[in-house]
Amino acid sequence: MELWIGLTIAAAFLQTLRSSLQKRATGTLSVNGASYLRFCYALPFVWCYLSLLLLERTLPVLPGEFFVFCLVGGVAQIIGTAALVGSFSHGNFALGTTFSKTEVVLTALVGAVLFSEHLSWLQWAGIGVSFLGVALLSVRGGLKNIATDQRALALGVLAGAGFAISAVCYRAAALSLPSGDFLLRAGATLAITVSLQSVLMGLFLKVREPGELKRVLVNWRSGIWVGLVGAAASAGWFTAMTLVNAALVRALGQVELLFSFAISIWFFRERVQGAEIAGAVLVVLGIWLLL
Questions:
Q1: What average pLDDT does range 108-132 have in this prediction?
Q2: pTM of the predicted structure, to 2 decimals
Q3: Distance CA 287, CA 291 (A)
Q4: DSSP state string for 11-61
Q5: Is 143 a residue whose pLDDT tops 50?
């Protein structure tokens, strides 16, 4: 098995776990506060990771375009994360996660248009089949539910767009470095991005939700776990996207849906219907075609 495949599957599982931890935090924090948990509490962990990498490596000169890609990707991910956590308030856990999976098609399109990262016809077929599975999963309980869950749908798609832009920008940032192996490139991109996200979203909360920063600090017990799991997941995503096309990584990352439905059943006691099982089969088939 290729390294990027193992990293992606591990990152998908950890991201599902992090999302479930964030969902539990929405009871005591606002949507933005719960989103901020993953950034501020991940900060010390990502810098520790980079420090370990630098024990045997030298950090290259960071060009200006590197910071631009990190900034654009970081802001897009903040928007995507807030939209995803917000969608949990309007649909169930699996529903919000499913709608956000529109990111796969969007990542492929953004990469092709902006950076000429083209996929083979078989890879596009895999993305298409898995997208049909995602669409089938999205009609949870029938087509009628789409009409009644329009806000969850809109937030989920917004999350997908944010994650798509961020994925392409993170790969571009890592590849813009003049030297360093894939671990160092990914680790540096991760550390700088999370630092920018922590500062920007912290300032946003300070201005728009003054009391929320204090509540984030009070929730340090859950925040530490969100940060640790989130940092580990991000390290997996960033490293995999440094190795191969971001669209391939995000497409394979749809195995997260299988993890999210398992969590929705076992932990949140949500029901899974026949259409969702069929959708899951199509997602798996699409991933098989992709690989």
A1: 81
A2: 0.84
A3: 6
A4: HHHHHHHHHHHHHHHTTTS-HHHHHHHHHHTTHHHHHHHHHHHTTSS-PPP
A5: no
